[in-house]
# Entry
Amino acid sequence: MTATERTLRAGIRGRPLIDGLVRLLGPSKVIGEHPEDLLIYEYDGAVDTATPDAVVLPDDTADVAALARFCHEHGVPIVPRGAGTGLSGGAIPVEGGVVVSFARMSRILEMDVANRRAVVQPGLINLHLSTAAAPHNLHFVPDPSSQKACTLGGNVAENSGGPHTLAYGVTTNHVTGLEIVLSDGTIVRLGGKAEDGEGYDLIGAFVGSEGTLGLVTEITVKLTPLPEDKRTILAAFPTMDQASASVSAIIASGLVPAAIELMDQLATQAVEAAVGAGYPLDAGGILLCEVDGLRDGLDELASRIEAICRENGATTLRRAQTVLEREKLWAGRKGAFAAMGRLAPAYYVQDGVIPRTRLPDVLRTVSEVSKRHGLRIANVFHAGDGNLHPLVLFSDMRELERVHEAGLEILTACVEAGGSLTGEHGVGMEKNCYMPLQFRAEDLALMRRVKTAFDPADLANPGKIFPTPSRCREFQLHATR
Amino acid sequence: MSLDRNETATVERLRPADARTCADILRRAGEARQTVRVRGGGTKEYLGDPRPTDLVLETTSLGGIVEHVPADLTVTVGAGTRFRELEDALARAGQMLALDPPHADAATIGGIVAANSSGFRRARYGGVRDLLIGTRCALVDGTVASAGGRVVKNVAGYDVNKLLIGSFGTLAVITECTFKVTPLPVATAGLRARFRRAADAYAAADLVARTPARPAALAIDGRARDAWELVVLAEGEPAAVDRAIAIAADAASARGRAERGDVTAALTALRELPASADGVLVRASLPPAAQTAFAEAAMRLEGFMRLVSDAASGIVRVEVRGDDDVLVAAADSLLADARVCGGSARVERRPDRLRARVEAWGDGDVPGLFLMRRLKDAFDPNGILEPGRSVVS
# Structure
């Protein structure tokens, strides 16, 4: 972890802030009396850190609104935090201020089976929702690898994806209602259980806004019928080239699997050591593909996928025969990031997206970047939608500059291939300086208009998404060199 | 509809051939405080409460397919392109843009996006907001800006695309769109089932929606208190399509009479209700389970003609005919019912003579309206774009 260079905002800090918050909300909802208690809130799942001035644990929307009004009055930034699993520094108070932990707002408020909707609080853990919906034969589609820990509020903030969003959509496709608190304390209810509303789609603008437009205090989501059955295929290839060519061939053949995931040899070794998912260790690339839905015709679909893999040089093909086998195959994929600890003490994960036809050449670029910087890079990613996750491994914070350089080269290659800086992890404070790679000044100005309408005081998670003059100076020099 | 000033020869009609020219026109209009109507295929001019404008900006020269990479399953297209033209081009590559909007023959892509036009197939494939991944637009300050991109997954910055969908041209002029496309289905099958009661038709639809059958359309057509039809379309792999229709037949047969067969023509007729409607047409978006109660209230209205419902998505249209008082009463009642049901509604069509008596959004009390107005101010501070077209402007 690295303490990040930051510009602190004006407004109150220290003792006056803590005292003011305790007077407002009571001591049981405020952390900061003892500064050491704040340390566990200084990091999330990414590499940057910054200590908050205070942490608040609201019980309900009224607490959040009161807090926001207080912060607005005193010019204090307000930074929402779910489970802290984010991978772009979204929950890091880079300009100081109050971190709002939603740990105490974690209930399912309503399981509306008749409408196939659930109304939940932002601190609810993603997997808990699907677990609660399962007896009704329903589930919440977005399934990030961190789904055992990450929260719905975080999913809304980051517009999270997951392996099964290839066929069924990411978070924004499954949210129909929100209650939000603006940075001035105004409570706004948007949408509900119906799919369309009148006027502008503010829900669509808010989902994925990374806490920079306000705080979400209640979420209404669609629940989707569980598939009747699934077929999960593991295909092992001598090289990543062959594995990625298979992905392109599957997509081009008109098949739309529920998930297509790829993993390279380095990632496989880590996963096998940690999880024992049964992946062949000698393979250069491993493809995990799932088809689901009604059981009718699934075997034939699976056979067609296997045939395409075989044509592209697959040496091993295995179809999960039991639920347990399938769970094991997925446990390997979902545990991949955690397994990286077997290879190195730290990793820096990128999240670039590319058009699917560019997979083989961009993966070659990633491997060249790895050689050039002498850094090991593991690849484990959502190949079906072109969402790469190169994990740059390192062991010493002194390597971080080189690690960032490698990451930037990979992202540049993604953008040059016609892609995006991030597919599901968000921009946060990690890639905000890189935004001009993908967006022209006019495009960023368009987003700025949205920010101004929601948060004119710039107190909602400041220092995220948009390039900031202080932190991005170095990058601008770098870019113009 | 009569927009007198626009029908006189003095209204300037402009047809820019590229986004840059379009933005220049908007900048000059802004400087001169001239109001602007944006027109694609001109198929949905009945929407909202549009007021006469100084200029009409026609997007029909912003046409053509910019980029289509079949293996990436994406297409970028000029906003003035006719939906049919795009559909035909994609079909030649074995693909489709899985929208089936009303006015499908003449509507343009830009108009479909700006009006958030959807059809029954959103049940399986999603609506405009699920398929649009990038836009380019011209703004009143003379800039051309892009939102989103050309890849299917992208969370870099705000999803400004979403704000443009359903904005009716009140924020910016859409000049180019990028969509996810889908392989054409290998197999298609249909089913029609007739019921005596609305509740039975909805119960059958609900049974299907609760399974993983994922039908491509789950439409309900109500023509009288005792004449209801459920139209089911299944698309995909042959075995799954057969099974989906079998599931629908099972769900329907307990309460009504089901018959398999081609439903293309039936669905086209239902989809085109906004084009053919006379009198008042109200469009409601409801929680799915509230549709039955809404339909039962609608069919009891004096002048009730027809109800068409995308039962999977909760989009319900009701057509009412009769004298002015009947139409006004029905519009008021349907708008109120939609709200009681936990949804919202607008009057999509009404005779010109009733524009003063029937407001498109009733009392216009839309949640978050003050925020929408702030957005409108941030995009179009002088309010020159499409005055009256949206509840926001």
In short: The first helix of chain B runs from residue 4 to 7.
